[in-house]
Structure formats: structure tokens, C-alpha cells
Amino acid sequence: MSDRTSPLHDEHVALGANLTEFGGWQMPLRYGSDIAEHAAVRTAAGLFDLSHMGEIMVTGPQATAALDHALVGWASKVAVGRARYSMLVQEDGGVVDDLVIYRLADDEVLVVANAGNADVVLAELVERATGFDATVTSTSDATALVAVQGPRAEEIVTSLTAAGSVEALRALRYYAVERAEVAGVDALVARTGYTGEDGFELFVPADSAPGLWRALLEAGTPLGLVPAGLSARDSLRLEAGMPLYGHELDRGTTPYEAGLGRVVRLDKTDDAGEPLPFVGREALAALQGTDPGRVLVGLRMLGRRPARAGYAVLDGAETPAPVGTVTSGVPSPTLGYPVAMAYVTPGLSAVGTRLAVDVRGRAEAAEVVEMPFYSRVR
After folding, report:
1. What is its EC number (predicted)?
2. Spatial separation of the C-alpha atoms in residues 356 and 300, rounded to whole Å
């Protein structure tokens, strides 16, 4: 077991959570039924502890300039109060981590990294900010992150919000952030999430997290909210077609292979209109417009047996040959059949292509389908 625990660890134990190691932390895998937790998020709401994520503050007059150099995105174009999905890549374009940046002020940006990569991202940002008038600081130890996700998330969160901020939170757009008092706690509230549903992520002081957690449970339980663990979080994000670092993304994968070339801003320029250099730019520029050796696709399994990460994808020939690898797969609780994401050769990536997956020595039929597998009605 890891020796890193969330500020909400005692709350999880009291709720009878099944704990597991994830990204160097002990985190709740489930509290009861994975399927029930998943269904609650799709129909009402789920309460998640995301305190294992890494929070890094970049501050100073050149905070966004430093991030323009460090990341593939154009941080200085993100408006104050908005958030943006981005990536940190190596010189060869391989993904070090995917992350979300929150522009809190002209000179203040919050970077949220994946748990297992938090220390690496911190070190890379410190190094890449050298020469800029910017300071990079980890605030992870002092911060807890709690998420409420699902169609009743707004109702639950605003029921605990100080009167002066209720309308601001109701009006908050997707990938926007606002400061508010929730259940008596000063919180940075973002309309972001990783489930494919509406919802909020609340960044709060670590010592305030238990009280906020209990208040959200009390307010949300009558509306169908349940605490939800990593297992439900994984099936929810997979249905929504969202990548997970270590599965769909890693240092051997470029944004283009993952179908995320849209986050690479080769068009970012300085005030004089000159191209802005950033780490990985040359490699990514050379790859833009070329055919990658493999592409990420969605698969619908045509039988009942699910594909799992690492399983071989096979072509549809009479004697099947390997043409790719599954990165993530689950029986979809929402759709009622197994779905998976996989890297395959480009010639077999078109929607409708019939393939197979080697499931423990047996070729199970599959079909390439569009992602996301599930999309909520907005």
C-alpha cells in the first residue's frame, strides 16, 4: 500500500470504501457496487475525491508566456476565468502528461496534472520556466479536490453556495471557473469533469475538505447522489471517450496518434507575429498532416465478453493477424454492451470496419464505432 492518503481518507474508511493504490495514493476503488455508482452519475449525481491530482501554481508577469513555451497550447490566449485542456510533451512530441490549466488572473494560472505524473510535471515546468519572470510552485499538499458530477450536480452544489454566488455558479460555462463559498468553505469552483456529465470540481484547503464532503453528501443523498470511486470514474470516462494517461496516452504516443491534434497550437505567435517556440514544436510540426502509424479508435464488442487493456486487436481475415492493441475496455453499464478504445493501423480505422479482439485466446468480433460512445443531452 502507498503511504500517501487523501485529506478525505477517514471519510472513505467510515463509508466502507474498498481502497486501492493509484498514482502513489490510497484511493477509493468503490464503496459498494461499481454499476450503481456509475448509474447514479448518469441519472443523478456522484461525489468523487480527486485529491490525488497534482495542483501547480504558475505565477508572475510572464506566467502565461512560460506556459506557452512549456505546453503545446496557447495559454496566453485563455481568458481569465476560463480553463483549457492541454499537454506537456517531450522534444520528440511524446506526451509527458495531459492536464488542465485554469487562468485565475492575468498573472496566475493553476495547472492540474495526473496523480502519477505530478512530480514530473512540476520538475518540467520549473525547468521550462527558466528565463521567464514566473514562479512555479506545488500546492498539492495544501489542496483537496472534490467533484460532484451528474445531471443534479448544479442543484446540489448551489444548495450549499452562499447566496451572492448562486447565480454565478448557475451561469458558469463549461470549462470556466469561479470563486465561491460552498458549505462555508472558500472554494475555487470549476465546471469541469471527467465523466461526460455536467458537474463541478471544487478546489479547497485540505483541512476544509472533510466538512465539505459531509455537507455535499447530506445535501445530495435525498437527490440520488452517492459517493463514487475510481472504478466508476474509469467506466464513465471511457463511455465519454476521454483518454487516460498510461492507457491512451504515454511518452511513446503523440497527440496526433491519439486524435488530439486540436490541442497543439502550432499557430501561436508573439506580439510581433513571429512563431512562438515551445518544447516539442519542431517534431509536432513535422508530424502535422502526415499519416500516423496508428490511430486511436472506439470499438463496440459484438458479443458479451469485454476487451481489456493489452489485448491484441485482430483483422477480419479468415486467419486473423494482429493489427493493434486495446488501451481500455469495459462492459458499458449505460449502453449494455462492452466498449473499448484501441490503437489500430490507419487502414482499419474507418467507422464500420469489422475487427476482432483476442480475448484469452478466442477471437471476439468487434466493430469500429464513433467516439464518444455516450454523449449526454445538453
Report:
1. 2.1.2.10
2. 10
